[in-house]
Write a structure and sequence with these properties.
169 residues, Diphtheria Toxin Repressor, domain 2, mainly alpha, 9 helices, single chain
Length: 169
């Protein structure tokens, strides 16, 4: 069989299928409008699509934004959506990793401020270059600020120090 006959045998997509695919591409385009300009530039997008996405980010009126999203959906039909989907998934995964890391640092800080006995050993195991005296000083200052009902300057400094340790390891 020739390729021409194979194409003739392939069932034509129904109107519903075409509409579902168009809506899926428009939804993917909507996800792209939620990304930062830097993230968009990291995804290899055609210039016209990138310009349309950047324009959509500036439109705040509902009707105009809706029309722009439809236009983005139309432009999405001309590209392979799989690399775009993968790039968005990678960005979302990185965001989840970053959030988990920040939550871990918050937990460490909270345990230090509650004077947990095991957390210092855990941190020393994890970060051999940990400055114990600096951490103890920050914890003492945070306790003092808490008792005096002052802003938690030392607790923030403790978080920043732990964050720096985490990023340098």
């Amino acid at each position: 069989m020739s390729t021409e006959n194979e194409n003739d045998l392939a069932p034509e997509k129904s109107k519903t299928q075409k509409k579902q695919e168009a809506n899926a591409l428009q939804a993917l385009g909507t996800q792209l409008t939620e990304l930062s300009e830097e993230q968009l530039h990291n995804i290899q997008l055609p210039a016209t699509l990138l310009d349309a996405i950047l324009s959509a980010q500036k439109i705040h009126q509902h009707g105009g934004r809706k029309r722009q999203l439809q236009y983005i959906g139309k432009l999405m039909r001309d590209i392979d959506p799989e690399p775009v989907k993968q790039a968005i998934q990678e960005i979302q995964l990185q965001h989840k990793r970053d959030s988990a890391q920040l939550h871990q640092i918050e937990d460490w800080r909270d345990q230090l401020l509650q004077h947990s006995a095991t957390i210092m050993d855990d941190l020393l195991t994890r970060f051999p270059d940990l400055d114990i005296q600096h951490i103890r000083q920050l914890v003492r200052n945070a306790d003092k600020e808490s008792r005096q009902q002052k802003p938690p300057k030392s607790a923030r400094a403790l978080f920043k120090y732990l964050h720096t340790l985490q990023n340098n390891s």
